[in-house]
Amino acid sequence: xxxxxxxxxxxxxxxxxxxxxxxxxxxxxxxxxxxxxxxxxxxxxxxxxxxxxxxxxxxxxxxxxxxxxxxxxxxxxxxxxxxxxxxxxxxxxxxxxxxxxxxxxxxxxxxxxxxxxxxxxxxxxxxxxxxxxxxxxxxxxxxxxxxxxxxxxxxxxxxxxxxxxxxxxxxxxxxxxxxxxxxxxxxxxxxxxxxxxxxxxxxxxxxxxxxxxxxxxxxxxxxxxxxxxxxx
Length: 232
Ligand code: BTN
Description:
The protein is an alpha+beta fold and 232 residues long. It has five helices and twelve strands. Helix content is 20%, strand content 38%.
């Protein structure tokens, strides 16, 4: 991580993650912020609705000697920094493993991380965060919420971003476990082909979900399963 962070602000971009990735060749830590995105990207190739009033940012960070085996700490840091920012507003955020942030049972923030590996090290990462501040949630009201809906107040997007970026740069990954939701609760896990009931026990160092199933305690990677929305 460089001490100096270059910051670039845009009215509109297709995707702040794509822009940050296009700047990797410059080798400097960079924060990219856009007021709206026309091609916001989510995980698993999904699109991410990015109307004005939300916070859309990507942080490009370069590392020296960061072991690939610890790459999950990047996700933990992003999720925990978001939760800390929301908790400071009086909200009670929960992480839906591995990387969605929920408040009052609805998604408020999504995170998309794109790492570059060099051998057994992470050489750089782009951490993309989309946080609903006061943007419209047309058609998504049943599953999504925003800071405005949860607090009844309209915060300036820039104020939220300042707090969030400060925590991201500080490093708060050790706080991830404290915000992990659904611990001790029974959920449905979905693979491409099967659904199974399991009790969430926690997350291991590699970012795998530890759950108790009928077949005993098992660990699942996020590529293998997802927690079904059903019953959350
Ligand atoms: C998800 O919920 O699936 C992850 C959503 C990540 C969205 C953010 S918004 C800023 C950055 N730019 C993108 O194109 N995606 C991420």
